[in-house]
Amino acid sequence: MTPAPQIKGWCPGAWQPMASGDGLVVRVRPPQGRLSAGQALQLAELARVHGSGVLELSSRANVQLRGIAPDRHAAVLDILAGCGLLDADARRESLRTIVLDPLWQPGDGVRETAQALEAALFQPEAQAALQGLPAKFGWLVAGRGHRALAGVPADIRLLCLPAGRAADTGHRWHLLVQGLPRLLAASTLPAAIAAALELARWCADQSRTRKAKGLHPGRMAGLLAQYQAAHHRLPDWQLPAGASLQALEDAAFCMPSAPDPAPGRQGPDGPYPGLLAGAPLGRLSANALSRLARVLRDTRDRDGQAPHLRITPWRMLLIEGRAWSPAALRQAGLDDAREWITDAGDARLRVCACTGAPGCSQALAPTLDLALQLAPQVPPGALLHVSGCAKGCARQRPADITLRAQAGTAADGTPTASFAVVQNGTARDVAQQELEACALRDNPRLFSEKIEWLTSTKPMAPKSIASPLPPYAAKPT
C-alpha cells in the first residue's frame, strides 16, 4: 500500500466515524456513485489491512469499511482522500449526500443534473447558506426509473425527465420534496438547481432556529408539517424564474414504488448499462472486490477507458459497459455464488439483515447467518428482514415479515434471545408472535410453519408483543 498522503488543512476529528462492536465503521461516498478500478482496489486493500476484510454496500449507495482500529482512523481517511474518495474539506464532504440513480444512461441528463447540483453545493455562498442543515439531509437525483428508488431516504428528489413534444429542450426537471403536497417544476437545469438550493436553504434556516431553542433540528418533512400547522400555508420561497409549484396530479408520481432491479447481464437490448451483480446481504469480501477490480483494470471499453463500478442502493454493484462472457465471469470471480448474486431467482435476494451481534453493540442477537439460513424458506416475491434491534438499520421500509431480536430471561434466570415477528411492518412496529432464537437456528423450517400459520385465516390471533420503542420515537414514513 502506498504511504498515506497528508492532506493540507484536514482535521480527522471533523469527519467522525461510527463506533460499533467490531471497531469503527467508516462510510465512503464515492463521487457520483462510481468507483474506478484503482479506487476499488484501494478500498479492498483498506478493508483487508485495516478492517475486518468485509465491505458493506448500504441502502444509501455508500460503501462501509468495518472493524477499523481507532489508532488507524486518521491514516485511513488520508488514504481515502488521496485516491479521491474523501473531500479534504469536511464541510464539502458533509454536503455531498447525493444518491445518483445508478441506472443512468448517457444522454438522459441524470448524471449531468447530479454534477450541476454538486457544483452548486460547493460554491462558498451555498456552503454559508446551508450551515446548520440537518446531518442526515439527503438528495436523490434520478430519471424515468425513479420509482425503483422510492425507498431511498431523501429530503429532496430532483428528477430529470424527457421533455414534452412542445418543449424546446430535451429535458424537464421536477422536484419532489419530502412533506410537500405539491410538485415543483422547472424548465431549465439552472432553474431546477436554484430552486433546490432555495428549499435546502429554508430547511437550514428552520433547523438553526430550532437548535437555538434547544430543539432537535428535524428533517424536511417534519419542518414543513410544523410550518404549515402554524401558518396554514406554504413557506414564502423565493423561487427562480422558470420554476413553479404545481398540483401533484401526475399519476406517475403517485404510483407505488417499483421493485428493486434484479441482477442480470446486459444484452443487445438489456435494461441496464452493464452487469448488475449483488452481494449476499450487501456484504462483499475484500478478496472478491480485488479480483473483480483487477479484471476491470485490464479491460477497455470502446473509448479506451476501464469500466467503472456504480454503487447502488439495492446492495448491488453495476459493472459498466460490458457484455460479460462466461469466461470473463469466471476470470472476475463473478461465478462464485458464495461472493456474488447474479441469478435473479437467488433466494438470498429475499432477505436483508443488519450486522447483528457481536459486530454491533446494540444488537441483541446474531442476524447474518440466521437470515441466510431462512432465505430458502421465503417464497418468491416476499421479503424477510432480520433486525438485531428495534432500530431496523438494514431496512426502514416495511417488509412482508420482520424478525426483531429481543432479550429475555429463561425460567432459570439465564438470559435468552428471541425474535418478535412483525407482519407487513418495520422493526419498530407491533409484533404478532414470538419465536425463540435457538429454535429458529436449529430448525429453520419452524419459520415457514409459523409464518404460514400467521398468514392463514384462522380466527384466533396470537397475543401482540408491543414494540420496545414509544410511538414518538418512530421515524416518519
TrEMBL record:
Pfam families: NIR_SIR_ferr
Domain (Nitrite/Sulfite reductase ferredoxin-like) ranges: 17-81
InterPro entries, per database record: NIR_SIR_4Fe-4S, NiRdtase/SiRdtase_haem-b_fer, Nit/Sulf_reduc_fer-like_dom_sf, NO2/SO3_Rdtase_4Fe4S_sf, NO2/SO3_Rdtase_FeS/sirohaem_BS
SUPFAM superfamilies: Nitrite and sulphite reductase 4Fe-4S domain-like, Nitrite/Sulfite reductase N-terminal domain-like
UniProt entry keywords in alphabetical sequence: 4Fe-4S, Heme, Iron, Iron-sulfur, Metal-binding, Oxidoreductase
Transmembrane stretches, start-end: none
Protein name, entry field: Precorrin-3B synthase
